[in-house]
Amino acid sequence: MIDLNQHNSQLNSKYRIEMPPIKYILTLLITTLFFSCNSTAEKSNEGDKQPQNITPTQPAQAQAPGKNIRSQITETKNETSSNILPAQQAIMEFVDYNDDGDYFILNANKNSKIYSFINENDDRTLVRGDLIDVTWKETTIQIPGDGSDQKADKIIDITKVKDGKTSNFRKEYQKELKYTWAQEENYSEDYLNKLYKVVEYYIANSDNELLQQHVKNKDQLSYSIEKQTKDDKEYTMIGISTTNLENHQNIVQWLYLDDNQNILYDYDLPNDKPIEVH
Asked: In terms of domains, do 182 and 259 share one?
């Protein structure tokens, strides 16, 4: 007869699992936790150590005495702007230089539209009407006192392609124009030079047959300058004339200059009205 108690005791002994002491369990948990944290930290450090694109700072370059550094400033801004247009090129007609502002400006005409460019070239030999080949690019400038960035077109290269009518007039006529004005007007030298170029350009491009005949004959041309108000608007009135044998002035053409708009007018004497010169 089988002793069930003894049989069960033998079964329990056969299939009993020995449980490790509690201190071994704690040691295993702490060790696992330590390696887990260390592995996470290493992965974090590895992520922090990813290679970075670092642009080295360029050493500052000494500027030559008196050198204008505005070009370097605008070029730096231009290089970092993502919406700057590529260089452009066009054949245009030279209008004038304007060196009175914070940036030197060259104005040119294309299809009856005036384009203004920042001009850092020291050459001032172009004459109004000369045909020029201009290459320019968009850049960024700062207007003193404003502080905000503004886009502007800056000349990269400029070449004279062909003499205009004013240049040809100078070669043909080979005389200086004379002019007179009332001394109380106290015109500045810059303004008188501006008027000289305006009159010179007008004579070179005028279809006034009498005026062109005087040019062909190389008769001495002169002009008078005075203030004139017409229709409640102030103009500079210019009278182009020649001198006859009796030393009398013969007016060939009256002009009106609107200084505010920089628009020149022929004076239509029979109809008593100014006609814009194009």
From this structure: yes
